[in-house]
Amino acid sequence: MKVWMLQQNGILEEQNRPEVVTQKMQVKVKLSKVLITENDVELLSGKFPSAIYPIIPGHTAVGVLSETCACGIDLTKGARVYLHPLFPCGVCENCKKDSVLDCTDMHIAGVNAHGFLRDFAVVNLNDVSLLPSSVSDEQALFVEWIALAESVLDTLDCSKGDHVVIYGASILGNLLAQLLIYRKIVPILVDTDVAFLDYAKKCGVYYTFKLDNTLRENIMKVTGGRLADASVYAGLSDVSPSLPFVYAAPCTNVVYAGLRFKDVEVNLKNALLKQCAVYCVTQAKKHISSAINILANKAITLPDISYRYGTIDDLPNLTRLLQIGKYSFLSPYIIKLL
Ligand SMILES: [Zn+2]
Questions:
Q1: pLDDT per residue over 8-65, tens digit each?
Q2: 90 alpha carbon – ligand 1 mean position (Å)
Q3: Nearest to 93 by CA among 109, 83, 85, 104
Q4: Ligand 1: distance of its center to the CA of 107 in Å?
Q5: For residues 129 and 317, what is the distance between their CA atoms, to the nearest angstrom?
Q6: Dist. CA 119 → ligand 1 center (Å)
Q7: What CATH number does the domain located at 145-281 have?
Q8: CATH 3.10.20.30 at 2-141+302-336, yes or no
Q9: What's the pLDDT band for 147 if we cut at 50, 70, 90?
């Protein structure tokens, strides 16, 4: 079986490795599409200090079952699956209590665990999800972001008609805003980047505001002067991470969320004055099934995404290909392995 192993010196080596099902609850998956994320590009360009080398890149992937498990569950060979990018550590207190979805030290594919740039992977049955026919492979590559948005939504504890201000209108802010609308909660999306706000409008988000000196007035107008019933700061946003507390109503929840973060320094003065509760949401393995359902129910839309496709041979050119950086979710780069 072939894997593409990235060495510390940035060289991607093709290697042969056995991929054999050894346990009753394991399945074998033939990989079909691997999304090249910004993490992968950083890995490939040697700029990922927390990565553990040598490592197989590839955080987000879909494939087909090539060997089903011997556990008695009725699975069809050839069925399409989404591969979970997080693996429970198996040794933390929650894992020991068999509460693996609440693992406090999830291993991350393509960061500190091998990813999916390989032709086959043997994985635990709990680490794959079957994809319904109404969800395309390409849509499935957004599952982790939708799951994260679902997890944020749970944490916000909002009711119908509440106003949630989201700082950062990139992929997480956009998907979260759409999920809020689906649940009849009112999102107000704020960003410094008009391109993200314009795209959110295309996705059906009504209140989108550029961060400028009219923001207070705009938020006051939409909320009827009450300010935000809850606030979300999306990781890697260019907006100041102290801003959510400025426009939060007293005694409300503020959630910091994302799969990746820059160093974040927050001024907590307003949080203390308003007695806000602060939460952090950075992984959402337990919401993967509901994320797939959301896609199947067409509860979110991502119009005009222009997918780009390549093969393993294109990987050395990826850094150049992904120069668009923060807009990469609008033109995802997918390695086809089938
Ligand atoms: Zn654990």
A1: 777 889 999 998 998 888 999 999 999 988 778 888 777 777 778 899 999 999 999 9
A2: 5
A3: 104
A4: 9
A5: 31
A6: 27
A7: 3.40.50.720
A8: no
A9: very high
